[in-house]
Design goal:
about 80% helix, mainly alpha
């Protein structure tokens, strides 16, 4: 069994967070623009209300700062452990976007 707190696993988790954040950004923009859903995070909802560019900047900057902070503290076990739930949350959010797509797209493509 792989120790999820090794530096190699930690790097993979941080990369996954960054990729899944972009997937979340695109999915959220798409579903909000098409009127399917709203942004659940109040801070990000405000950014989205200010415009897509503000949302894009805020989303990439905030998650990038969080990942950078974790990376800066990579030698501490706490930082390595913290990356795991963060990656899992983004994986769940990514799955939610796919779930929405599976419910919405069949009706929009027919």
């Amino acid at each position: 069994m792989t120790d999820l707190t090794t530096i190699a696993s930690f790097e993979k988790a941080l990369k996954a967070i960054l990729v899944l954040n972009v997937f979340d950004l695109v999915g959220t923009q798409w579903w909000v623009i098409t009127g399917v859903t709203t942004e659940a995070n109040p801070l990000m909802a405000q950014a989205l209300g200010a415009g897509p560019g503000v949302f894009l900047f805020a989303k990439l900057a905030l998650v990038g700062l969080a990942v950078g902070l974790l990376w800066r503290n990579r030698e501490t076990r706490m930082a390595r452990v913290a990356a795991v739930p963060m990656a899992l949350v983004y994986a769940f959010i990514g799955g939610s976007h796919l779930g929405i797509a599976s419910q919405v797209l069949p009706y929009t493509l027919s």
